[in-house]
């Protein structure tokens, strides 16, 4: 656009001497420039770049027990389940904590330690069969080194402390085998702690042995996992812990009032003061009250069907009824947005330094939210965080930075002993 020239004339009267008068200089006025438009951010593309750029940890993936029930080669694509190598690569997953899950019933029947050792060996065998894809991770630095090599780390956490069997020598045994966190209990009270799912609370929190175990876990360098334990047990842990703790797969109770398995605001604040991390569980029943209510109603319907027809609960007829019920009453899957609300809630409550990922893939069955159906889905989560205004730096903390900080702090504390 050409400059605009304005000529300012000078008016004089007839009797004035204009011999020395000068014409006024033309004034050039530049056109108003429009501010350059910011390029539109391709959130999906950026999310994939971030997923590859930073380590992604997931605090809880139930691959070992899934394979115990039905073996599959997770080094290749599998038709079932939520985890395998190709999907992990697609999602940018670098350090999924393999859950060494021990059913609560073994506390009474025995066999906890044997099953734990068997599942740990299974993880080792996965790595031996595909060393170009997977690697063990006994430390936070192992995860970082494996990441640089392009290998997926398989650190391990024990879900249910039942295999400790009241003997601290077993804590050392499992540490030596690679266990780096222990979820103190599961769905029933055990010799360590009361459970959030169990109406019976024989210890009123941690048992005397449980209190001793927490202290020794800190000294050994095993992270204390407060998912599954009762509220009273949680606050017992907070009094005892000398190093940060984790909730490896729990969400915010704010959205599921009365569901003790999730963490209350008071507990999240206490966890943050401890320097710990809550790792958000993706299961719909952890995310939304609608899914919880659906589960309650479905449970009653199944119970009534069994009673009315005098059937065994494991019969084919009951299984067929479950399928029919779901077809006629669709499950209210949570959405990616619902999951993001949990991250937002924790961040608004205590800050971005105390939240991470604990999907519970392969552990919550067919209850995963839309857009978060398996381990290929982490870029969807990242994209959602970007759209909600999270910076790349903060997203890196959520993906692994916070958990790695806790792990390193636990290692540093244990190095004193």
How is the topology of this model organized?
Blueprint lengths: L3 E3 L20 E3 L13 H11 L3 E5 L1 H7 L15 H7 L3 E7 L4 H4 L2 H18 L4 E2 L4 H10 L2 E2 L2 E4 L8 H9 L2 E5 L24 H13 L2 E3 L5 H10 L5 E2 L17 H10 L2 E4 L3 H4 L1 H21 L6 H13 L7 H15 L4 E3 L20 H10 L4 H23 L3
Parallel strand pairs: 3-4, 4-7, 5-6, 7-8, 8-9, 10-11, 11-12
Antiparallel strand pairs: 1-2
What's the mean pLDDT score?
A: 93
Strand order of the largest sheet: 3-4-7-8-9
End-to-end CA span: 76 Å
Runs with pLDDT <50, length 5+?
1-24
Shape: globular
Instruction: Provide the number of structural domains.
Output: 2
| Number of strand segments | 12
Bin the helical content: 40-55%
In brief:
With 417 residues, the protein is α/β, with parallel strands linked by helices.
Fold and architecture overview:
- There is one protein chain.
- The protein is of the alpha/beta class and 417 residues long.
- It has two domains: 43-286 and 333-414, Metal-dependent hydrolases (TIM Barrel, Alpha-Beta Barrel), CATH 3.20.20; 289-331.
- The chain is 44% helix and 10% strand.
- The chain is built from 16 helices and twelve strands.
- The strands form four sheets. A five-stranded parallel beta sheet has the order 3-4-7-8-9, sandwiched between helices. A three-stranded parallel beta sheet has the order 10-11-12. Strands 1-2 form a two-stranded antiparallel ribbon.
- The longest helix is centred in the last third of the chain and has 23 residues, at 392-414.
- The termini are far apart.
């Amino acid at each position: 656009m050409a400059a605009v020239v304005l000529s300012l004339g000078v008016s004089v009267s007839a009797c004035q001497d204009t011999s020395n008068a000068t014409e006024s200089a033309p004034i050039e006025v530049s056109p108003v420039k429009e501010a350059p438009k910011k390029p539109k951010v391709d959130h999906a593309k950026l999310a994939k770049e971030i997923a590859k750029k930073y380590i992604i940890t997931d605090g809880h993936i139930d691959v070992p027990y899934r394979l115990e029930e039905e073996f599959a080669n997770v080094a290749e694509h599998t038709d079932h389940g939520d985890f395998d190598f190709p999907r992990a690569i697609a999602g940018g997953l670098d350090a999924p904590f393999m859950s060494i899950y021990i059913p609560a019933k073994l506390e009474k029947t025995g066999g906890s330690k044997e099953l734990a050792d068997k599942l740990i060996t299974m993880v080792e065998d996965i790595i031996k069969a595909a060393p170009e894809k997977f690697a063990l991770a006994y430390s936070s630095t192992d995860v970082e080194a494996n990441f640089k090599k392009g290998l997926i780390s398989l650190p391990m956490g024990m879900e249910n402390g039942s295999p400790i069997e009241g003997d601290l020598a077993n804590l050392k045994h499992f540490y030596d085998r690679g266990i780096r966190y222990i979820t103190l209990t599961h769905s029933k009270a055990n010799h360590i702690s009361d459970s959030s799912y169990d109406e019976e609370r024989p210890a009123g929190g941690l048992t005397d042995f449980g209190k001793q175990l927490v202290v020794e876990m800190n000294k050994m360098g095993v992270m204390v996992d407060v998912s599954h334990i009762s509220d009273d047990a949680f606050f017992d842990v907070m009094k005892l812990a000398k190093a940060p703790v984790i909730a490896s797969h729990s969400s915010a109770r704010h959205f599921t009032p009365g569901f003790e398995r999730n963490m209350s605001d008071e507990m999240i604040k206490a966890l943050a003061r401890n320097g710990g991390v809550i790792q958000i569980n993706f299961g719909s029943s952890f995310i939304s009250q609608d899914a919880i209510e659906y589960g309650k109603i479905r449970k009653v319907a199944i119970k009534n069907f069994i009673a009315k027809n005098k059937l065994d609960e494991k019969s084919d007829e009951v299984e067929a009824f479950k399928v029919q019920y779901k077809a006629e009453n669709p499950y209210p899957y949570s959405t990616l947005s619902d999951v993001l609300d949990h991250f937002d809630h924790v961040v608004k409550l205590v800050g971005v330094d105390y939240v991470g990922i604990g999907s519970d893939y392969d552990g919550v069955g067919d209850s995963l939210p839309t857009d978060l159906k398996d381990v290929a889905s982490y870029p969807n989560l990242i994209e959602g965080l970007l759209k909600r205004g999270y910076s790349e730096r903060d997203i890196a903390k959520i993906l692994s930075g916070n958990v790695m900080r806790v792990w390193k702090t636990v290692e540093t504390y244990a190095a004193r002993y």
